[in-house]
Design brief:
The structure is a homotrimer of 153-residue chains.
Chain A lengths: L1 E9 L6 E4 L1 H11 L4 E7 L4 E6 L3 H14 L10 H6 L16 H10 L2 E7 L2 E2 L6 E6 L6 E9 L1
Antiparallel strand pairs in A: 1-8, 2-7, 3-5, 3-8, 4-7, 5-6
């Protein structure tokens, strides 16, 4: 059995961003020399996720707007009446009482999930034709880490 | 260490469907000869998920209706005012501008998640009494692939 | 390759609860003697989840309230008009027709996801500074099992 671990730090210009990392994960697999196994790709922060989706800008813009409706930020005015009604009591997250302003990012992270496992077959990420791996930032503009851990033979 | 990979293609009659695949996953474990390990079960498309849940028709109907409320399709009239309010600006997904009509399936897939890991103990899927593995189709009526990857000894 | 399996049973006093289990997972890693690998932490019931998040009471209270809005229970009056509008047709889940009252717990479980994989590096859970592992109970007050399965070397 072989294992390999790689870390990457992201610092996005925008508070929210999708960063395509398929090549980064493949590079870690190449370094590992593993031909058959699994690659865990996991955010090390609780306000960033990892997802596998199509690299289509419309989907990403749709998803960001939709995540804002399901988990509205309260550090700006709600986008509409539904978003307003979904805001917790008092119009702000309890998490913000300590001075934080990223309560929504924790919930968005929960929806998107913070990790994926990519199967590795014959030394390649075994993804479907439209599957790409993305780092999903919900509270950026500061350095945040991601771990890639590969197990196999 | 041993590894084993199996692929399956699903072509559901309905656009949305739950297909129980616990036996399919166990069959792949049997073929692998692995006694202790992990079985990754992962959709290779971005409009289909995999979940572990009770095989109870009421839960599945509830879940489909609920997913339609949280991630409404716009290729038919919204079910109610809440669904309508949740529809992105202009009443349709940006993803549909290219001619696609499955914008909601991408979001439903995000909610359900596209993969699970089933632990394998003494050669059997180590599931709780009500846990069954399902392939969750959100944009069917065409061939779509699933990968099962087992790692262990 | 080594593998190790541990089971834990939880019986929470409250119907819904977050139980921090980071130490429990680290203890299983210690028992396994595994230095490099992956630890799967997975609920064996379909109304309980596992998440990785900050151990901050405000986040947990926010999340419980938010989950109640997205997946409202119908065994008590909805919290507000949005929650009421999200209730499935007829005001109750189909799953409740058989006498169950935990239809919402199945949906909450779907949102939170029932499992995580924690990377193991140099014998330690390789988590970020604010990442803690929690068992998330949505239908407690009875014994429910969790499996920890570690694979590595």
């Amino acid at each position: 059995m072989k294992s390999h671990t790689a870390y990457h730090t992201f610092r996005t210009d925008e508070r929210r961003a999708f960063v395509r990392i398929t090549d980064l994960v493949q590079a870690a697999v190449d370094e590992s020399g593993i031909r058959e196994g699994m690659a865990l790709v996991s955010a090390m922060h609780i306000t960033a996720g990892v997802w596998v989706n199509d690299d289509e800008p419309g989907i990403q813009a749709d998803a960001l707007e939709w995540l804002d409706k399901l988990a509205p930020p309260t550090w700006k005015a709600p986008a509409n009446g539904v978003a307003e009604a979904l805001v917790p009591d008092g119009g702000d997250y309890r998490h913000h009482r300590g001075g934080e302003d990223n309560g929504d990012a924790h919930l968005k992270n929960l929806l998107v999930h913070h990790q994926v496992i990519v199967p590795v077959t014959a030394g390649r990420l075994d993804l479907g034709p439209w599957q790409a791996v993305f780092y999903c930032e919900f509270d950026g503009r500061r350095g945040k880490r991601l771990i890639i851990k590969i197990l196999g033979e």
